[in-house]
Amino acid sequence: MKDINQKQTLATTIKEQLTALCSWRFFLFWVSNSLFGFGSAIVFVFIPDYAEQKGLSFQQAVYILSTLGLCNAIGRLLNILLSLCRCNHGNIYIMSCTLSGICICLMNVDLSGSSNSFLALAITCSSYGLFYGIQLANVATVTSILSPQPFLNTAFGLTNLAAGVGTICGSPAAAFFFSIGGDRFELTYYIAGGATMLAGLILLPTICLKTQVSQVCDETE
């Protein structure tokens, strides 16, 4: 009898949590994280191969990937300064997602000459890494804004699940688009960039309400 009551209590708790999180705002945020994870998986997994396809050496491809990771860390640190300036986290999240997508699309820019191609790809990858780090640093804050306080643990779990689903789907999808794109990465990166930009733009009706976001941030502080 005790086990039955425990199972009923657990089922009731899960139902209450899911019901509280079943809002259109949180659903859009969930989709946004899936799209962003989808795009980021394509960039991080295939950027060395894409660099070599552009005529760069393996060593140059390694440098580009290292620069991307370094700028990712810088972006997270930069977000601390943005927080101290009391910037709107919702707007920062939207802009970082959108700018990340633009940077992915710009990776397709092809300049004549190996040195020019390396410089162009290094700049776009560095910029993407910077915005990527800022986006990741704001995920927890935006999650707390869009979900009820008693169910934050569940909300964080669902948010990470969304990013994981997108990441898992990213690599196989990239391989498919690579094959239909004539064994080239241009189509793949345009799709990844479009998905990443969409991850930010679909949240415009959700967290671009400056007063609402500011009020919630003040309450949490």
From TrEMBL:
Pfam families: MFS_1
GO molecular function, one term: monocarboxylic acid transmembrane transporter activity
UniProt keywords, alphabetically: Membrane, Transmembrane, Transmembrane helix
Transmembrane regions listed in the UniProt entry: 27-50, 62-84, 90-111, 118-137, 157-180, 187-207
Gene3D superfamilies referenced in this protein's UniProt entry, alphabetically: MFS general substrate transporter like domains (1.20.1250.20)
InterPro entries: MFS, MFS_trans_sf, Proton-linked_MCT
Record bears the keyword Transmembrane helix: yes
Coiled-coil regions, chain positions: none
PANTHER family on file: MFS DOMAIN-CONTAINING PROTEIN, MONOCARBOXYLATE TRANSPORTER
Protein name (record): Uncharacterized protein
Species the sequence originates in: Bugula neritina (Brown bryozoan)
Lineage, uppermost ranks: Eukaryota, Metazoa, Spiralia, Lophotrochozoa, Bryozoa
